[in-house]
Amino acid sequence: MSASSLPIHLAGHKVGPGQKLFVIAGPDSIESEDMALRHAHLLKGIAQRLGVNYAFKCSYDKANRTSGKSFRGPGLKEGLRILARIRDEVGVPVLTDVHETSHVGPAAEVVDIIQIPAFLCRQTDLVEAVARTGRGVNLKKGQFVAPKDIVHSARKAFEAGNPNVLVTERGSSFGYNNLVVDMRGFAQMREAGLAVCMDATHAVQLPSAGNGETAGERKFVALLARAAAAAGIDALFTEVHEDPDRALCDGPCSLNPQMFEDVVRNVLNIRRVLGHEPG
Question: Span 38-64, mean pLDDT?
Answer without folding.
Answer: 95
